[in-house]
Amino acid sequence: MPKHGKKYRKAIEGIDLGARYEMPEGVELALKTSVAKFDETVDVALVLGVDPKYSDQMVRGAVSLPHGLGKDVRVAVFCQGDKEAEAKAAGAEFVGSDDLVEKIKGGWLDFDKAVATPDMMGKVGQIGRLLGPRGLMPNAKTGTVTADVATAVKELKAGKVEFKVDKAGVLHAPLGKVSFGTEKILDNLKTLLEQVIRLKPSAAKGTYLKAMTLATTMGPGIKVDANSVRKHLEGGI
């Protein structure tokens, strides 16, 4: 078992880490357990009742959080012609076609998100093995393969979150910074949950949202009562 410092031990005093809390209290407790000197990120982990090995049970999508993520997002756009000017005007830091592909082949990956126009996907596919494992591969389901590069760039820089359930049926997503406070993190969480619920596969049977855990970068996991989620999404907060 790892040894924790005095600040950590004091932060979790009186908190039952085995209990399941209502959503608002869970967010509040997760923020309370933040002890790092930097502004930690708040993350959520959702255990879904799906079997991702079947394509009709895959849960993947994106959502724009109302309060963003509180971080600068560096965007690379694969496009050509007039689209290059559009992407730059929207705030993309890196724009190009063959030159950008070659740069990445050489090992450069100094960006956070990527967008591509449909006509560029043949070339982007050449670097899929480099982008895919890092979650950087543009995808039509998350709105990052599009002719409307300006909108895609603006949404990503404003805090659009992409998510995908993993092989174990768990979906991880950031919700913002500890400095946001309970209300803003709660708003972002509600927006994310509403989108995840909308994307419930028709092939998924039984309980869809099985468990939820909230945690800051350095903090412990705070369990949320999954059965209470619908109540809070319907205005109970």
- Give the CA-CA distance, first to last residue: 36 Å
Per CATH, which architecture of the largest domain? 2-Layer Sandwich
Low-confidence stretches: none
Number of helices: 9
**β-strand number:** 10
**The CATH H-level homologous superfamily of the largest domain:** Ribosomal protein L1/L10, rRNA-binding domain
Shape: globular
Helical coverage, percent range? 25-40%
The CATH class label of the largest domain is: Alpha Beta
Rg over CA atoms: 19 Å
- Biggest sheet, spatial arrangement of strands: 1-10-9-2-8
The secondary-structure class comes to alpha/beta
Question: What is the N-to-C succession of helices and strands?
Answer: HEHEEEHEHEHHHEEHEEH
Mean pLDDT: 91
Strand content: 15-25%
Sheet of most strands: 5 strands, mixed
CATH topology of the largest domain: Ribulose 1,5 Bisphosphate Carboxylase/Oxygenase
Keywords: Repressor, Ribonucleoprotein, Ribosomal protein, RNA-binding, rRNA-binding, Translation regulation, tRNA-binding
GO molecular function: rRNA binding; structural constituent of ribosome; tRNA binding
GO cellular component, one term: large ribosomal subunit
Pfam family, one: Ribosomal_L1
